[in-house]
Structure formats: C-alpha cells, structure tokens
Amino acid sequence: xxxxxxxxxxxxxxxxxxxxxxxxxxxxxHGIARLYGDLVSALPTLYAAAVQLPDIEPESADxxxxxxTHGQWATVFDGLLGMFLEDDRETAGSLADDLADIYRxxxxxxxxxxxGRSEADVVWEWRFSFWSHWGEHAAxxxxxxxxxxxxxxxxxx
Length: 157
What we know:
By secondary structure, this protein is mainly alpha-helical. It has helices at about 5-25, 25-30, 30-50, 70-85, 90-115, 120-150.
C-alpha cells in the first residue's frame, strides 16, 4: 500500500468512525426505529473500513490510551439498554454491550487523535482492537439489527 493509499484508508476509517459515534450519541434523541435504520448501514460500513486499516507499527511503546472511564462506558451501555429493553428483552443486553464496546474502542481513538496522539499509534490500536475485540461485536450486533429489521421488512424510509 502506498503512502497516499494508506492515508486515504485511514481518513476513510476516521470518517465512518465519527459517523458511528454520532449515531450512538444521537440514539436516545432519534429513537429506536431510526437507530436500527442507522445501524444497519453504519455497522457494515465501519467493519469494511476497519478491514482496510493498514498493518503499521505504533510509534511509541506507551500503554494503550484510554479516554473513557468505566462509568462513561456504562452511561452509553445503560442508555442503549433502556432503548432495547422496550423493544426486545431477549437481545437487549447483548446488543447494548456490542454497541457500547464498539463505541468505546472507536471513540477512544478519535479522542486520542484530537489530543495529538500519533496517528500510527491510534491506527495500530484501532486495527488490533478490531481484530481482537470489537470486530466480533460488530458482526454480532449486525446480526441482531438485521433480525429486528427483517421482522419489519427493512428500516422505515
């Protein structure tokens, strides 16, 4: 991968990461129907962009960055859980956990970039955490979202 291609791939991931974070941040205001409609597009887009992240070495040997406390993660989780409990008690906890974990891993990278952290460090962490953790959450969440939308023959337009 050439340097310009690598930069384009990273920039593309950053855009879809910001979009995913915005979907989760707006979930309570927009409601469950819109959330499902947004997620059925955002999750596969984020997943596809993560697969394209370049395999680069981090610039520093520092411990991974963390910008979200457990309490902040729990606020995201609890907000989502409350929405999903009203819709489907059976999958509510799993879906809320999947989406909140993706949110944490993606948002921490965005926050790190905003704070001036090395792009190589952030991209390395995003790629590592995708393959070791949140990629599976994204696949599981999409399965649940698809099942919920299939009951209604797709999202409302």
